[in-house]
Amino acid sequence: MTRHSRFEQLAVLRSVAKWLPLASLVAALAGSASAFFLFALDAATRWRETHPAIIWLLPLAGAAVGWIYWRLGKQVEAGNNLIIDEIHDPQKTVPLRMAPLVLGGTVVSHLFGASVGREGTAVQMGGALADQLTRLFRLDNEDRRILLMAGIAAGFSSVFGTPLAGALFGLEVLAIGSMRYDALFPCTVAAIVADQVGLAWGVHHTHYVVSSVAPVTLWSVLAVTLAGIAFGLTGRVFAVATHRLGGWVRRWIAYPPLRPFAGGVVVAVAVWALDAHRYIGLGIPTIVAAFEGPLPPWDFLGKMAFTIVSLGTGFKGGEVTPLFYIGATLGNALAPLLHMPVSMLAGIGFVAVFAGAANTPVATIVMAVELFGPAIGPLAAIGCLASYLSSGHTGIYHAQRVGNGKYRPALPEGLRLSEIAQYRLQAKAAHAKAAEATKPD
């Protein structure tokens, strides 16, 4: 062994010795916070289901959460996007107040009947708690980036019970088409330990059963590809509509607490008028039912509409569990049309709509295997990749960057998703100007 290789091995050992305890500490904090959050969420959901009239208080609950964020949470209002931005361009420590604010805001949203998820809460708690260790251990910006990524991985893993997918999500969500492998070990350790911490606290995750998987044939590949395109377009519509509604509401309602108040009025009246209780909250019973037999084919549209209104008007939570609902029910509706097993296409839709909306195909392929078993892996991979490609350069996280674009013409590396539309307008104007200049007089 050469002297250089000995030094390299020592550096590897020092890295492992540093990140094993650090990532485990992040996992203990994030896993414990997620366990408390999940217990509170279960209690809130049970209360709402036994007291359905509480939906009429949703506007007041939304206004209260909006007022608290307006007075105390302006620095953390960006949520997941703030953490992604801090990883790409470190500025200052994520305020610890993000954790209790998003936890309380999400539980209140679920208690009174908003249609929101839970991954955003877990990721924000994991990131905020992890970042408090930056000063304690005097970490530089590069180590801080990795610590925040480990916090994302730990939060995602502990709230869904998918440690490998959680590790990959922490790596993949930052930029389309690229991952930082120097963070692979810390993210994997954090995700696995956080999941075990949650289980030690007594967390029980929902079990989804895929009872039948089609063999890999020419038709099954074609059918799942077609379904994947539908899943990706659905994820694109969800992301674009949520962002556009949010922008419209901010322009037309200047006083922040009134935004969720207005959204709460819309949701409460729609639930009453349409008897649409199945479209609020997490909707886990409907997701489970999508694996078992036929459901109304419009369920995915109902959940999408209620979630877009809830998130677009400022209710706190996340997008992922609603995307699971949308994908599973859309897969349920497409299965008979494509002559595929209902439970299999519901499972692929479950992960593939999320793959397209979050631009995380590798994490969702692994999630499919973790949740539904290895037999679904090949077809789930096709569905997730088709969804990822067909959703285009849009997504639920505006702070996500472009790494390697999905297709040509390539977009500049490092461009935020929120900047792509403006970049394309400028590129189009520059092209037109250049063409005009080359015209003969």
From TrEMBL:
One of its GO terms (cellular component) is membrane. It comes from the Bacteria. GO terms for molecular function: chloride transmembrane transporter activity. Its main location: membrane. Pfam families: Voltage_CLC. The chain crosses the membrane at residues 20-41, 53-70, 146-171, 183-204, 216-239, 260-280, 300-325, 337-358, 364-389. Keywords: Membrane, Transmembrane, Transmembrane helix. It is a multi-pass membrane protein. The keyword Lyase does not apply. It is found in: Membrane. SUPFAM superfamilies: Clc chloride channel (SSF81340). This is H+/Cl-antiporter ClcA. It comes from Pseudacidovorax intermedius.
